[in-house]
Amino acid sequence: xxxxxxxxxxxxxxxxxxxxxxxxxxxxxxxxxxxxxxxxxxxxxxxxxxxxxxxxxxxxxxxxxxxxxxxxxxxxxxxxxxxxxxxxxxxxxxxxxxxxxxxxxxxxxxxxxxxxxxxxxxxxxxxxxxxxxxxxxxxxxxxxxxxxxxxxxxxxxxxxxxxxxxxxxxxxxxxxxxxxxxxxxxxxxxxxxxxxxxxxxxxxxxxxxxxxxxxxxxxxxxxxxxxxxxxxxxxxxxxxxxxxxxxxxxxxxxxxxxxxxxxxxxxxxxxxxxxxxxxxxxxxxxxxxxxxxxxxxxxxxxxxxxxxxxxxxxxxxxxxxxxxxxxxxxxxxxxxxxxxxxxxxxxxxxxxxxxxxxxxxxxx
Length: 364
What we know:
By secondary structure, the chain is mainly α. The chain folds into three domains: 6-76, no CATH class; 83-191; 198-363, Orthogonal Bundle (hpI Integrase, Chain A). The protein contains 17 helices and six strands. The chain is elongated.
């Protein structure tokens, strides 16, 4: 029917919707296959809903609307990829456990920041210029979030919901932001190197020890030795400049008990095996035998332990490293890099650090 003006039409539509609000809510809940509703929703629909269907629903909470229920379905339509599903997809990626944990945290952060009340992970890719602007506003450096979004956009189940134009915009923004970040890092690294006596830093690192440690087999002493001496093989050749690889390093008696997934110390041969590390997709695993003296030293410390330092978190291992060395992992790696560039090529030192020469030049 015709209306005198747009306001009359809007008023008519609102009245029509208000009259059918409950019926529409019931229809949408049934279509979504809802099995539970809140007390609030129950009270709204109880007089119009079919008793048999209503009695099949579980009533939870009181006077609250759960995030997955009718508010989502009614206002925003069908969810394409829920945050929980995005986390399941992350679990399927061939990345380290720590990276998976970081990615899952980014799922929560981005959905909360960019999607208002929508519980759909794919919404972070809609209105992409606006979403990028929000990230730039909220973060001094949004590179890691843009990189995560780009990584997730390559998963088929997510990719099918992202317009090609939006992905192209995201890729250009990520490349531009990363280039800026790398340029800033290079300048910062150059300034740090000009103002640091790396050989003095190395001497302080090697000489560092807690004053209250008398026990040769104290954990701090073991960690200090592992990070400064046992990074070389039985022939004295540098084999790694590690991060926190040993937070869950398993101890086995022989190499037949090892696999190609976890990190191990083999007691019988004194072999260190590192399969799980940050850049494992681009670099080969680490495997070498420590010296005979180091093997005896570590074996005596380990005894019958199943893990070299306990099955702990990366964060806890970082704390142990800092306590044992007097510096954190990043500074430790910088010191060791500059030390061993005096003996080995840039390419070799980059390989034992498990990153590219370009990353080393920019950040170390």
